[in-house]
Amino acid sequence: MKINWARLRKWILQAVLFFFVSSIGLVLLYRFVPVPLTPLMLIRSVESLGAEKFVGIDKDWVPLEDISPSVQRAVLKAEDYRFFDHNGFDYDAIQKAMKFNQTHKRKKGASTISQQTAKNVFLWPYRDWVRKGFEAYFTVLIEFVWPKERIMEVYLNVIELGPGVYGVEAASQKYFKKTAKSLNPYQASLMAAVLPNPRKFRIDRPSIYVMARQRRILNRVAPEIPKSADASLLDFLDLKFDSEDDE
């Protein structure tokens, strides 16, 4: 069978162009619009169809100002201490993780909140080099388009915090019977303590390991959160001029 290389190249170019246009379009859209659904949410639900108990999707989007500052500080201490200082990748943490993994059986990760957000919103959960490549691409893209506050807001609204539970508001309502805005440092640290593996570690039934991790998060000094984090490119394009009445 003779391969039509010209047609094949055309299809490949069209596919690549479609990917870039659609991915950039989605990132621009989610800069302003709540993320309605993620691949992870769908995958978890589909995987549970053959299990004993079906896992639905329990989520409730809330703006960042309706989430307790204790939650933001807890996830920064637990997951990404230099979140406001890096541009999506923490190279010091990556080097430390590589050195650690050379001598330890239990592997250590170095994903930033930006990388986790890129993975959770746009990609599949399974680890492979293809996904890591796409993760890097989307990380650069959201860091370029979204301000840090938006990355944090999206992250806190889509993270998995239990079977079928996504986002800190849904987790707060389910496990603490209160809103995310009302969470205290103790509850916020417990929530952050399960983030490495929310299907293994439980907020409602914390293990000794989770409680020890919670104490470490509580006792660690929180990084300083800027009152107004660095703006994205879009913020520079949204120019506002003083009117004559303001002079």
List keywords for this structure.
11 helices; three-stranded mixed sheet; mainly alpha; 3 strands; disordered C terminus; 247 residues
Outline the structure in words.
This protein is mainly alpha-helical. Helix content is 53%, strand content 3%. The protein has 11 helices and 3 strands; from the N terminus they run ααβαααααββαααα. It has helices spanning 5-30, 39-47, 69-79, 91-103, 113-122, 129-145, 148-158, 168-176, 185-193, 208-219, 233-237, and strands at residues 58-59, 160-162, 165-166. The chain has a 3-stranded mixed beta sheet, with helices on one face. A hairpin with a 2-residue loop joins β2 and β3 (165-166). α5 (113-122) crosses α6, α5 crosses α7 (148-158) and α9 (185-193) crosses α10 (208-219). It is globular, with a radius of gyration of 20 Å. The chain starts with a helix and ends in a 10-residue tail after the last helix. Mean pLDDT is 88; it is low at 236-247.
The main pleated sheet reads as: 3 strands, mixed
H/E topology pattern: HHEHHHHHEEHHHH
Strand share of the residues? under 5%
Helix content: 40-55%
Number of helical runs? Answer: 11
Mean pLDDT: 88
Strand order of the largest sheet: 1-3-2
Q: Uncertain runs with pLDDT below 50, 5 residues or more?
A: 236-247
Q: What distance lies between the first and last C-alpha atoms, to the nearest angstrom? A: 75 Å
Main structural class: mainly alpha
Q: Per the principal axes of the C-alpha atoms, what is the gross shape?
A: globular
User: Rounded to an integer, what's the Rg over CA atoms?
Assistant: 20 Å
- How many beta-strand segments? 3
